[in-house]
Amino acid sequence: MRLTVLAGGVGGSTFLRGLLAARPDAEITVVGNTADDITLFGLRVCPDLDTVMYTLGGGISKERGWGREDETWVVKEELAAYGVEPTWFGLGDRDIATHLVRTQMLDAGYGLAAVTEALCARWELPVRLLPMSDDRVETHVVVDDPENPGTRKAIHFQEYWVRLHAEVPAHQILAIGQDKAKPAPGVLDAIAECDALILPPSNPVVSVGTILGVPGIREAVRETAAPVIGVSPIIGTGPVRGMADKVLAAIGVESTAGAVARYYGSRAAGGVLDGWLIDTSDAAQLESIAAAGIHAQAVPLWMDDEPKTAAIATAAVVLAEAVRR
What we know:
Rossmann fold; 3 domains; alpha/beta
């Protein structure tokens, strides 16, 4: 079975581990979000791609859910001693090696897809990992400017998330460069040729949303013969992980499983979804989701451990098969 997954970082990676446990013989292609990418200290950092790579390659920090296991922070401490900014985003010593290799290859003229393939070879990933685009796309968040009351400014998503912890209101989400970006090599083929396309419980605005926003990708998702199944990132009124509720508010979408399903929309009505999994605690929303033209099922969605996550992944694939019939 050929499965294609449009994934963000930690939530997407966790789901992918369950999918691999549930379907170990499947041929899985992951299209990763790159709009969180940032250049720091002269190095190109791709947080979501690296989280998928480290998680599935066995190098992720189990405690943090991002970065390397057994990490040290000597370089970060030395940079701070020199007073180098930003101090709010630290790169671990092991992690820096990845960014050095990536930056050297990009500077030598290789595209991000080729660079990602080279990096993944070291980790012997059981999936094919593709960036959404070789082109530079960066998410910025419009917030109030504390230094100039009554005005707003756009800051990089990483500053919003890492430095500010998403604790200030987000007024607008901007994907800089997205309108000129093209899908990376292999992305459109992976969408067109798969047996099922899955949207895991990644952020629907700044992860899956930015992937779909690359010109040509949403159209490919709408046109694929494969069923498109999503897993709700919202349980009750809160995100499974991260701050999806904060950025949903910025675009005027209620933080509920049903509202996110309607935000994605049904393929029959111009959206991207055929099926949608919600948590059993949200079962009362099934009827309204079905009314929007989306096949919905309620199953336990908390990804507390690998068996529970594998059960979620199995439910997504089974729903895809049901929708196909």
